[in-house]
Hints:
By secondary structure, the protein is mainly α. The protein has helices spanning 4-15, 21-36, 43-74, 98-101, 107-131, 138-153, 164-185, 191-196.
Amino acid sequence: MNNKKEILSGWMELSGFPKFTTTMLPFLLGAVLARAFGHPIDCVVLAISLLAVFLLTDFCFVLNACSVYADLKQKGIDFGHVEGTSTLHSTAVSGRFDALVKGRISVKQAVIGAYLCVLAALPLGVLLQFHFKTGVLTLPLGLLGIFIAYGYSRGLRFSYHGLGEIALTAGVGWLTVFSGYYLQAHQASWLPTVVALP
Length: 198
């Protein structure tokens, strides 16, 4: 049985924290864009929403790593015994399978942790929409983020059907910028969509 320190170490390795810039920076861009067009930054809303984005990003990265690892294991790839395979996806920015291969965290533990991230993010969305009055699209935007993250490697499995890049473009390229703007401006605009275009 894994001790808590090993599980936490495995979780952090699977999370691949340098990758968080792919969602946090576009989200902050949206908030700065709102500020540039006359909407004051609400620091409390920004902090709560950044935490929600962080949790949903972790959900996405860990769930995807677990899905790929489990699928490869199901196809008979044994990372512990095949020369060189333990380094697959083993970079500081891509997320790693080493934590799973070395048993620091199990796929089941990591998946449970990923779903706990979603459960922790949901009340933040409710708080933003109903207490801080960020707008009626707050929860739908968060739920869209959950759907895209889940559908990337589970559910509809976008990445397995040639739709992974489209899902990432929608989720990371557009949704994060639009959400960062919307939560500060409390209104929809074409501006963040134009800025988010590749």
